[in-house]
Specification:
The chain is mostly helical. The protein has one domain. Helices cover about 75% and strands about 0% of the residues. The chain contains 15 helices and no strands. The longest helix is centred in the N-terminal third of the chain and has 27 residues.
């Protein structure tokens, strides 16, 4: 997703069709985007593995407490702290950050209860919602191929989730809801934050994520949802005692989020956005491999078919959006 949210970015930004990229830089872009997909999937594995040791709010709050000061310090060292803070806390960057935070919360809330493959594929339905919102809110024209991609994507989500069957889990709806909010964040970014520096967007995003983690945690302290905490401690439980291992995990996740930003930004600078965005779907290959190797979960035929349909829809959306003739 966004360069610093730590989630996949399931659709490329609207590119300029006439931009020329040297062929030598294509290989560089391919290496960077494949590296980003691998690192993002690794981050998701780590969070899934340690979801029994830390709560969702705890992860958000403590990681934000590490990342926000680091970003502010970096801005100070570059002599742009005041400018960055002013840009970061503007209306539109904060609204964008709220949408991405909701995406992040929904995705990681579901992660302990469903496979990485299912969560990732559901999250990659975002291009469908971006197309719909772009058409009805921004008035951007959508070609017949674009509407075909939307129908294909929705069919893929239906096959993946299998509502009404014994295989259906309500947890799978959270990544789909997150995809909707990511679509809103994408629209806000393109319409209102196109000239906002990456550092300012990263700061607003990390700050809102930290507030979300603290807000969720304080709300649970005030309400004491005992039964829900007993049933789902990862979401509704109290903070765990932090061990040196858990501090190292959080520090590693903080560093990973910055590495992801660098890899994604470098990839989209080095190669055509449509090519890079298409290759970013390699994330789904990595999470399938992680599911098999780490969690001993082998995706069934329905899951693989749904994933393939969602990937095809996303790629078709990107290619029809970027084509000057559409």
């Amino acid at each position: 997703m966004s360069a610093l949210c730590g989630l996949p970015c399931p659709v490329a930004p609207y590119p300029e069709p006439m931009t020329q990229y040297p062929h030598s830089s294509h290989r560089h872009g391919v290496i960077l985007i494949l590296g980003a997909a691998l690192v993002i999937s690794t981050q998701d594995v780590v969070i899934k593995l340690f979801s029994a040791d830390m709560t969702l709010g705890q992860i958000f709050a403590l990681r934000g407490m590490m990342v926000v000061p680091a970003l502010v310090l970096y801005a100070m060292l570059r002599g742009i702290a005041v400018q960055t803070l002013r840009q970061a806390f503007g209306l539109w960057p904060m609204l964008r950050a709220a949408c991405i935070t909701t995406t992040f919360m929904a995705f990681y809330a579901a992660l302990p209860f469903i496979s990485l493959s299912t969560a990732g594929a559901a999250n990659y339905s975002a291009p469908i919602f971006i197309t719909l919102i772009s058409a009805y809110v921004l008035g951007r024209p959508v070609s017949a191929y674009g509407w075909g991609a939307v129908l294909l994507g929705f069919a893929g989500v239906f096959v993946l989730l299998r509502p009404g069957s014994d295989a259906f889990s309500a947890w799978t709806l959270l990544p789909v809801m997150g995809a909707c909010f990511y679509a809103l964040a994408h629209i806000v970014t393109n319409a209102k934050c196109g000239t906002t520096p990456l550092l300012a967007l990263a700061l607003s995003q990390s700050f809102v994520m930290m507030l979300a983690g603290l807000g969720l945690s304080f709300a649970l302290v005030l309400t004491h949802p005992t039964e829900m905490a007993r049933a789902t401690p990862y979401i509704f439980g109290a903070w765990s005692d932090m061990t040196p291992t858990l501090w190292l995990v959080l520090a590693g996740l903080s560093g990973i989020s910055i590495l992801i930003a660098v890899l994604l930004a470098g990839a989209y600078q080095a190669g055509p956005p449509v090519m890079i965005g298409t290759l970013e779907y390699s994330y789904l290959i990595f999470v399938v491999l992680w599911d098999i190797a780490v969690f001993n979960l082998i995706p069934d035929t329905f899951t693989l078919c749904g994933m393939a349909m969602i990937v095809a829809a996303g790629v078709l959306v990107m290619r029809t959006t970027s084509s000057p003739s559409q």
